[in-house]
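S.,

As promised, the zinc ion run. Input:
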Amino acid sequence: MPDYVTDTELKEEYGGEDGDYDGILLCGLKERILSSDRDKILIVLHTSTSHGPLYSKKYPPRFEVFTPVCESVEASDDDIEGLINAYDNSIVYTDYLLNEIISTLKELDSFHSTVIYVSDHGESLGENGLYMHGVPVKMAPKEQYEIPFIVWTSDDFRQLKPLEEASQHQVFHSVLNFLSFDSPVYDPEMSIFE
Ligand SMILES: [Zn+2]
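Predicted complex:
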C-alpha cells in the first residue's frame, strides 16, 4: 500500500532538533517498516542534503565541522573556501544520515535489506567559474554528472556485480531484481546485483 509522507507532516508528528533538515525523514522509519504487513517494502527517501545553492542551510548546526562557511553560492565570489566548507558539511550530514539508515536496517535483522544511495547530479563549486548544476550533459564538467552511487546490503541475499561504475539508469532494474519482481521491462544486464 503506498504511504506518502511529506517533511511537513513528519515535522508536525515528530518535530525535534532535525525537524528542519533531512533527518526528519528518518523519524518513525523503523516503526513504519515494522507496522507494514507486506513482505516486500520499498522506501524512497528524497533528501536535499548537498543540493545548491544554500549548502550551509542543509545541515543542523552541530554538523558544521568545516569553517568558516559561506552562506550561499551568490555570496561566494570571494569565498570559494567558505562555499566548499559548507558543501563539505552537507556531505558530513549525508554520511550521518546514511549511517542512521543502515543502523536501523541492521536492527531489523529478519529482513534482507539494501540501501541504494544516488544523487540526481553533482554540483560545481567554482571550478572553471561554474557553480551549481544544470549545464547540458554534453557540455557539463564531470563535477556535475559524476555522482555518488553507494550500495549497502544486509547479508548475502543478493551479491553485487563487480562493477567499476554504475549509473542512475540501473536503479530501476536493481530495485526490481532485489525485490524479485517479475516484469517484461526488467533487464538483468542493467541490475547492479548478480
Ligand atoms: Zn537536483
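The chain has five helices and four strands. The domain at 7-157 is CATH 3.40.720.10 (Alkaline Phosphatase, subunit A).

- D.
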